[in-house]
Every structure is written in C-alpha cells, then in structure tokens.
C-alpha cells in the first residue's frame, strides 16, 4: 500500500450550480478567477462556502475564453502565461484576504493545464507566477508531468494530481477528451481506479499495461449531472478503505 491519505479537489465557482452540495465531500476547492468563468462575486461566494466547510482554497486560472470555457489550446508565450496566472491568483488572494482566509494552492484550468503539463517552458512560467504570488503556495499538476518538475525547480511544493473519471495512456498522460474511451462513465470503475492509484500507486492504461503513478490529490469534476452523488460515493469508499481524506499538506 502506497498512500494512507489523499486530497479530494474540485473545480468550483464555474456556474455549475451545485457547489454548495459538493463542498461537504471535498477537501480542496479550485476557484475560477474570472477568466474562463466566474467573477469577483462568485469568488467571494465560493470562498465563503469553503470557509464554512473547512475546505482549503486554491486559484484556478485559465485562458480568458468564456465561449469555449478555457478548453481550447492556443498559441501563447511564456510571458502571457506568467501574467494571466499572476493576475488571476492575486485576484483570488485579495478576495480570500477579505474573508480572513489564505489561498493554499494553484491549479491551472483546462487548456492551460494540459499545455503546461507537456511544455516545460509554459510550466516554468506557471510556476514562477505562483512563486511570485507566494512561495508557500502548492502547485497542483498532472502526476508525473512538466508542471510538477517546474514547481520543484522553482522551489515550490508540487501536488501530483490524478483523475477519477479519465483514462490514462501508457506514458502516464490522460487520454485526450476527443478520443473514444477518454472518459470513465461507470461509477464503480472510476472508484476502483482511484482506490488503486491511492493504495497501490498504479493505474491501468488504455493498452492494458500498469503505469506507476503518485496520487497526492484526486480531481473530481464538478460540472457533471451526477457530480454530487459520485463525490459522496468516492469519499465514502475511500474512508471505508481506511484512506484519510484531507487537504494536501507538504
């Protein structure tokens, strides 16, 4: 058995409509900072919810592309990535300070997350922006990806993130959303994948091979029709398996 504890994180403040129902089952909230979704009012509301439930808060910066929800990859520069992560993280820090809370982590959103997971230059830009905001912030990134390595080079703590409802490729990357079989729609299969990643440090890839993986934090997508029911079930199954569910700590 590899891990005895894990963090459950969820992207919130994006307008899905059931943030309040999800909050009791998670331990870290990634809050949209007004670019791909959200605004100052939704940030304040989500921070207040997190405070009420004792949930750690993090910035969820993405491309300013609301029409495509920040999920379309684009040609971009290191400086552009640095500036958008810096500005959006600082925006949430200001809101959090007004509520007597501190931002604990940063997790890039959508296309920015995927691009920085592959591209070391963009990953460095993300990491340097996070460090500039606060060197004590934790950078959440795809397990084994360029984001984690960039965090370490910059002097940040990295949290290796895994996904409950996504399938994996033999190299440890996620199956692209546009490909068949990218999403796991069977709840039992998604729970089983999480339990194996957390307890054994392995995930079954799309070709049937086992891939070593570190699971510091598990992403729960909050925008699905059954998001709340799945969050409840996963939390219960982890605790039944004697896995401590708590916010990530270095």
Task: Indicate the radius of gyration in whole angstroms.
Answer: 17 Å
Listing every helix as H and every strand as E from the N terminus to the C terminus, the arrangement reads EHEHEHEHHEHEHEEEHE
Give the proportion of residues in helices.
25-40%
- The chain-level structural class is alpha/beta
> What's the architecture, going by CATH?
Alpha-Beta Barrel
Give the terminus-to-terminus CA distance. Answer: 20 Å
Beta-strand portion reads 15-25%
Overall pLDDT level: 96
Low-confidence runs: none
Shape: globular
CATH class: Alpha Beta
What strand order characterises the main sheet?
1-2-3-4-5-6-9
- How many distinct beta strands? 10
Task: Let me know the largest β-sheet.
Answer: 7 strands, parallel, barrel
- The number of domains is 1
At the fourth level of CATH, the homologous superfamily is: Glycoside hydrolase/deacetylase
Please report the number of helical segments: 8
What is the name of the CATH topology?
A: TIM Barrel
